[in-house]
Fold:
Amino acid sequence: MSEPSSEPPGRLHPLAILVFARKRIGASILPILVVAFTWRGGFALPVLGVLVAVGLSILVLEWRRFTYRIEAGRLVIERGVIRHTTRVVPLDRIRGVDLQAPWLHRVLGLVQVEVEAAAGGSSAAELSLPAVSAPEGDRLRTVLLSAGLKEAATGEPRPDLVLYRATPRLLVAGGLTSGRYILTPLVALGVIANFADDLPGAFGERLLSEAADRVPTEVLGVTALIVVGVLIALVLAAAGSLLTDWNFELADDGDRLVAHRGLLTRRAVAIDRSRVRGFDLLDSPLRRVFGLVGMRVVAGGVAGGRSGRTALAPVIANGDARVLARALDPLAALDATLEAHPRAALSRRLARAVVVPAVSGVVALALQWWLPAAALFVLALAGVPLGIDRYRQLGHRFDGRRLAVREGSLSRRWTSLDPRAVVSYAIQRSPFQARSGLRTIVLHLGQGAGSRRVLDCSEEQATALLVALDVPLFAPFALAKEAAYPLSA
Amino acid sequence: MILREPGSQLDPRVRRLWALEWGLAALGAAVVTTAIAVPIELADNRVAAVVVALVGGAVTLVGIGLALLQPRLLYRRFRYEITELGLYVARGSLWRRWQVVPHARIQTVDTKRGPLERAVGLVSVAVTTASAKGGTDIPGLDPRVADALVEELAHRAGIDEGT
Structure:
């Protein structure tokens, strides 16, 4: 590395004090304000003044003591007013650098730098620089990442190649067709209703009865009300999608894929290209109608557990998704004809989708809860087409280089996977599967990429797939079917 | 084509270990139930005391039942095998799971001896991978078998001695 080893230690931006203040005060601002405004004694203000002065000096001290530097191929962060801590991470262990700008940071022109490093075991350690200036954040990202990937690139940096950009139109379409954004307003409404219960003076109840008095009773009025409700839900769904993924841009800078997104909080995620091991294409029945999918990357070290980090494209047209995937992995298996799973899997899908609500409905009937019972029976009836479609979507195919797996109906996922990503293999069998000769294969992927499964295939298919995925590993375990049960003949 | 079962069985003494574990759990349930039910009874709340005693008693009985049945069943159904390239472990009877961890993907090999295991004279071996759920463990091995297993796994995985 060409970095001089005696670089002066870096400090956070002085405005970081404000960020610290907001973090520290956050929850306790309310009681403080309440005390300040309700205390009628003459000494409330002086006390508050002293508190503020003490707090401010602690914050300044905290800022003064927070230093970071890059020396001898390591990132060193020192912090702490009372208890001093030093964290050291070798640069080649750094897996990702995530720049975030929550609203306060945006106002002040700062970014928050989160550094993901490979820890000894399975988990990823995370270091954070709470507030540096935006250019410094960009510089840190380049320095921190380039060391781990290869020799720091000298000369002109290659202009970034933009692979995907979300247009507002796409995002609106994505919001309207996504279950997540459609349901979010409902959840928010539920939370508000909950809070309304706690408001003084039975505010919630009064509002409700007032509203009930004005609810139109004639058919026309009710229809209008429903239409307005649906419209509001749709607008909120589109707004949600626009808010989180505004100007989503995926660029390729040679070694990494860098995704920027967000309207209020602008976020950047970098994914090491050499760690890309596959893709998930996600859609819903509604998205299928419009030919749209969401696309995520399967890659180690992206901390996929946290939502959104693995997104390559929140909404993208089917054809463009294929072009994008092929640009990243020419072998990606996205159009393979999948091998269907045995008919027995249909009974299992149907049982899951129909039996559970039906039985719950019978219980509700027995308890004379008429309305829930009716709802559950409707759900059970809807379970029939759902179960059939879930079965028809099941499938897998291994072409010798990439594995394609599909499952799900309302939220369908097509995965193209490079078998090199697999860290361990498992076949599972529940008592129900045992009766119908079905198996589920679970492929564990390393470094936070989770696992992917092949649901309800036959025992033959399971063995054949595992053997194909890794011949030398599985060949010693595979037997021709007759030989397996020599005594049962 | 189907997978054959792994070849080796655990040390037979593991049945005693599991029975001991379930027995202790049952004993714990019985003690807790008594500790809750008796004060309630003394406070003259007969109905609540009976309910607590029934629930606690049922839990205790289940524990005793498992202590009697589960070790034999699990012992028969737990198999493992180590090959040139991987560790193959099969476990469970109703819910069964066959797992293969390639040696090349093993990150650490640990041996563990809890107090109960020490009492029975057994060791368990745990293997971890880069995926938190991708690892596996083999409980109830004779110390000599475990040592040999750890050595072989570490050697094949390319991990230095002294883990």
